[in-house]
Amino acid sequence: MSRTITVTERVGSDVPRIAESPAGIVWETGLQNPGLDAFVSGELLRLARGGARIIVSIGGETLEEYVRMTSALQGRPEVAAIEIHLSGRDDELDRAVLGAHADRLNEIVGAVARMSLVPVFAKLPGACDDTVGLARTAVRAGATGVTLLASPPALGLEATRDRPRIGIVTGWLSGPALKPVTLRAVFDVAQALPAVPVIASGGVRTGEDAVECLLAGAWAVQVGTATLTDPAAAVTVAQGIIRRLKTAGLASPAGLRGLLRPAEHAAAEENPAPAP
Amino acid sequence: MKRARAEILSTRKVGVYQSITLVAPEIGERARPGQFLAIAMPEGRAFILRRHFSIHQASRRGGWAGTLEFVVDPSAGAGTGWLAAARAHEFLDVIGPLGKAFSYPKRLTNCLLVAEGRGAASLFFLAQELLARHKRVDMILGGRALETVFKPIDAKRLAQTVAVMTADGSLGERGGVLDALPDAAARAAAEVVYAIAPAPILRAIAAFCRVHRLPAQVAIEERMGCGFGLCNTCVVPVARRDGSGYDNLRACVDGPVFSPQAARAPVGSSRA
Ligand SMILES: Cc1cc2nc3c(=O)[nH]c(=O)nc-3n(C[C@H](O)[C@H](O)[C@H](O)COP(=O)(O)O)c2cc1C
């Protein structure tokens, strides 16, 4: 998985760019990246060293930018799939979050999907009213599947110094705090659109977290923040999934997908109801 | 870069700081001055990220072989506070050595080392390596007050001369490291300057070196997320050579040791 790439290079936003919050981090990089050309001729090849195939995240503020990026990535053997970053500003329609509106999602995802020879995933914004509706729109427009969810917008403040914790003030929330939000989004979309590949992102740190995402209906998971403390976190997560598959006698993670049992009424034992 | 479960061999107070020695041979034998460690915090909801510390000592030989020392300012935050309270024989999850190290001059001999507060920790490691290469070492150490000047007595054992500066005059001369710079540079016949300090002071040191045509290396401490180049959050704006704006370089992998032009704030960047 690459960072989000834009057509022209971005130097990114002011430091500090990262701060801890309870069970999470608030961050903003301003999508710092070398730009499409430099990415394709440098970073992409470095990421793919050793034979890895990369999901490239593309971002933009206009339809044309998304089209140019998609076109430049076609026919590259290193590119396994495209993930569309949709949480940025919409310059053309002057909207704060480009992918939060079905009309625009339809247009952008449609253009990328029509042009792309590799699978296309729409990464839905982390705070939107109707995740299931947007997922349906993305798939109808031609997306192979959806990534749920992008980091929701967040703000970190420091009471003792009356200051924001992030240089450009506002940021995004990532880390373990997001797991229940991820599980709900994955669950809702998987229930409504069972045939649609869903990639879970947000709060996956351990093998158990990943198994929970699969049980909720995910086809795959992404590991972000956990990598910042353990560079091998993705390996640990994969080993955790494999362990679970072995004990359950399953051949593939697909076997766990959506395999939820009904809730237990164990609460009755822990918190006995008051006698009448 | 290695990851180790390292035992705390000892931990002791040095002024307001806590100096922690670890048994970490794999990291210790690779460590060079200017590099740093990323130390994991206890599990729970309070801490998510590692904490990052410059390497103060790494012993490759003798009775302390395989040990590694770093210095914590307990007042910096909850995470450093937790580390400062850790006891001997506890284990820490450590990744290191990380980042670019200081480089040693080949031809030049006289090295002036300048630091404020806890930043001085990595200068001691540097001083030893320079002395082993038959260089002359002089130092300027600063701090707010006596307790925040890091190891002034040990410094006297390593350096030809040590200028100590405190804001309140409780140790050495009253003033900052900048005030001592012209005299110390002249007295030491300095040919190379190494500096670690907060950004505004580093900027002034870099300006002094430019005017006096002294080659310099500066170590920049920026808030880090991971420490190994993934998160792109510990960036330092550095002007491009061709004058076309600036790049945000990562202090963790492109630094923390930079050329002095990194201390300058490029036009349009957040530091300007
Ligand atoms: C420092 C940092 C940089 C990120 N950069 C991007 C990015 O460029 N594009 C993107 O789509 N998501 C980006 N993310 C968000 C992650 O992909 C992920 O959606 C989010 O962090 C939640 O997952 P996690 O809890 O596993 O970190 C970034 C997250 C962090 C912490």
Kindly describe this structure.
The complex is a heterodimer of chains A (276) and B (272). Chain A has 276 residues and is of the alpha/beta class. Helix content of chain A is 34%, strand content 18%. Chain A has one domain (4-15, 31-156, 179-267): Alpha-Beta Barrel (TIM Barrel). In chain A, the strands form three sheets. In chain A, strands 1-4-5-6-7-12-13 form a seven-stranded parallel β-sheet. A four-stranded antiparallel β-sheet of chain A has the order 2-3-11-8, with no helix packed on it. In chain A, strands 9-10 form a two-stranded antiparallel ribbon. The longest helix of chain A has 16 residues, at 233-248. Chain B has 272 residues and is an alpha/beta fold. Chain B folds into two domains: 2-98, Beta Barrel (Elongation Factor Tu (Ef-tu), domain 3), CATH 2.40.30.10; 110-262, Nucleotide-binding domain of ferredoxin-NADP reductase (FNR) module (Rossmann fold, 3-Layer(aba) Sandwich), CATH 3.40.50.80. Chain B has a seven-stranded mixed β-sheet with strand order 10-9-8-7-11-12-15, sandwiched between helices. In chain B, strands 1-2-5-4-3-6 form a six-stranded antiparallel barrel. In chain B, strands 13-14 form a two-stranded antiparallel sheet. In chain B, helix 5 runs parallel beside helix 6. Chain B is globular, with a radius of gyration of 18 Å. The mean pLDDT of chain B is 92. The interface between A and B is medium-sized, with 27 and 29 residues. Bound molecules: flavin mononucleotide (FMN). Flavin mononucleotide sits between chains A (3-4, 25, 27, 29, 31, 57, 85, 123, 150-151, 174-175, 178, 201-204, 223-226) and B (225, 231, 233).
